């Protein structure tokens, strides 16, 4: 009797894909996958996260689609997705479909490495993976200060001087002044001799500080949405990727027709009483 080859039957079918431009997107800089990647999560969330982690970019990962692939109902999956958002594994994002287009797409960015709210906000604003704190790099402000001595030997600063003055120089760059202009301003018209390079640099950084630029009205390239209700909001208002209403379970249902009728009748009685009092 021939034995059927069940290995082919066991191969999973290709996952449903979202419309072009939509669906899952992998967050940058994730740690390699290992058996303990989602060990910190409850069993249901770990199971769903492991499934999403293996989906290719562009795969549909809405609750209805996932419920057809997993042994959980749509409501359970919605709850699990909210929990994964709070744990730092996903965020829902609106972003342009491409350069030079006004069309927006709606994507869910997933990270097998749990990320903090601050990481997601930096990535949202910068568009690229934020540099890990474990790999410190010299900032443009520090580099500009270290270059002063090469431009004019009278402003040669020590490493400690550069570190101490870095916040002031960084504020210049944050206000739109390029490093070359910062260097030119600090080295122009120096007295001779310069007795304290650090002191005169600090004075010039403080006294010649440019004004803050007017706020930009250009919208960001990405907009974060509440994972649960999909209401757009600023990252700081979406702690754990959830808005306050979804995070705290605030009741925002519409009043019933009976409740609305009661409120209107009550208001009419109050107004009638005010009118009678006025005539008295």
Structural class: alpha+beta
| Average residue-wise pLDDT | 80
Query: Strand sequence of the main sheet, in spatial order?
Result: 1-3-2-4
**Unreliable segments (pLDDT under 50, ≥5 consecutive)?**
1-11
Report, as a whole number of angstroms, the end-to-end distance. Answer: 104 Å
Number of helices: 11
Q: What does the main sheet amount to?
A: 4 strands, mixed
Whole-number count of domains: 2
Indicate the percent of residues in helices.
Answer: 40-55%
Element order: H for helix, E for strand: HEHHHEEHHHHHEHH
Oligomer: single chain
Gyration radius, rounded: 29 Å
User: How many β strands by DSSP?
Assistant: 4
Describe it for me?
Strand 2 and strand 3 form a beta hairpin. The longest helix is centred in the last third of the chain and has 23 residues. The protein is extended, with a radius of gyration of 29 Å. The protein starts with 5 loop residues before the first helix and ends with a helix. Strands 1-3-2-4 form a 4-stranded mixed beta sheet. Helix 6 packs across helix 8 and helix 7 packs parallel to helix 9. The protein has 11 helices and 4 strands; from the N terminus they run αβαααββαααααβαα. With 280 residues, it is of the alpha+beta class. The N terminus is likely disordered. The protein folds into 2 domains: 162 residues, no CATH class; 68 residues, no CATH class.
Could you give a quick summary of the protein structure above?
The chain contains eleven helices and four strands; from the N terminus they run H-E-H-H-H-E-E-H-H-H-H-H-E-H-H. It is an alpha+beta fold and 280 residues long.
């Amino acid at each position: 009797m021939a034995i059927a080859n069940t290995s082919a039957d066991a191969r999973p079918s290709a996952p449903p894909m979202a419309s072009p431009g939509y669906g899952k997107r992998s967050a940058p800089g994730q740690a390699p996958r290992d058996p303990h990647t989602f060990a910190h999560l409850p069993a249901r969330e770990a199971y769903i996260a492991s499934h999403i982690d293996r989906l290719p970019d562009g795969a549909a990962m809405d609750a209805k689609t996932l419920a057809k692939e997993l042994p959980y109902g749509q409501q359970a999956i919605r709850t699990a997705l909210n929990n994964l958002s709070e744990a730092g594994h996903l965020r829902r994002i609106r972003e342009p479909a491409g350069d030079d287009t006004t069309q927006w797409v709606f994507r869910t960015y997933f990270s097998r490495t749990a990320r903090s709210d601050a990481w997601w906000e930096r990535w949202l604003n910068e568009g690229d993976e934020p540099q890990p704190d474990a790999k410190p790099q010299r900032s443009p402000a520090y580099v500009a200060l270290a270059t002063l001595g090469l431009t004019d030997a009278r402003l040669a600063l020590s490493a400690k001087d550069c570190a101490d003055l870095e916040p002031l120089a960084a504020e210049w760059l944050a206000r739109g002044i390029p490093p070359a202009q910062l260097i030119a301003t600090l080295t122009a018209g120096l007295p001779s001799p310069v007795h304290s390079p650090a002191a005169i640099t600090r004075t010039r950084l403080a006294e010649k500080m440019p004004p803050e630029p007017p706020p930009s009205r250009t919208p960001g390239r990405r907009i974060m949405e509440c994972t649960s209700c999909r209401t757009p909001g600023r990252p700081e208002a979406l702690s754990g990727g959830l808005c306050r209403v979804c995070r705290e379970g605030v009741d925002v249902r519409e009043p019933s027709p009976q409740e609305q009728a009661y409120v209107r009748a009550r208001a009419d009685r109050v107004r009638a009483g005010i009118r009678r009092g006025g005539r008295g």
